[in-house]
């Protein structure tokens, strides 16, 4: 329809006018939608980081005991890496499923508003999923490395006594 208008043709129909108004509204609010997605991503990132770092901090006494018994930091990293992997897998599955379902819901609502003309706002593409997976892995890696590096240099007896 936009190409017809660009080439000098006009269509005098209420549906086309509504459709073009809706498309221009979506274009205007795309920046706002992108900002909202970025804010949501930051909030989710902080929640994932907080969850993992609190899990490590709460286990600092056990880490101290394991270090006193002769475990290496790589062994302790492996324990928390498995926890991070389970959290990451759950987050990825939930995120991809939510992304897909929200896309179907929003596209369905928009389609019903425009007399069953399918108008796609959300597209489920592999690049978005890959970015989601990589970002979750990166967030969990950072949330694993930073708290563990703080505990790494502390002596086992200090870690055990700090929680008493």
Summarize the structure.
With 164 residues, the protein is mainly alpha-helical. The protein has 6 helices and no strands. It has helices at 2-6, 14-58, 60-68, 73-113, 126-152, 156-162.
List keywords for this structure.
164 residues; mainly alpha
**Beta strand %:** under 5%
Percentage of residues assigned to helices: over 70%
What is the rounded Rg?
A: 25 Å
Q: What's the quaternary structure here?
A: single chain
**What gap, in angstroms, lies between the N and C termini?**
71 Å
User: If you average the pLDDT, what whole number results?
Assistant: 80
Outline: rod-shaped
Low-pLDDT regions: none
Helix/strand/pairing category: mainly alpha
Count of distinct strands: 0
| Biggest sheet details | none
- Element-by-element helix/strand order: HHHHHH
Q: Count helical runs.
A: 6
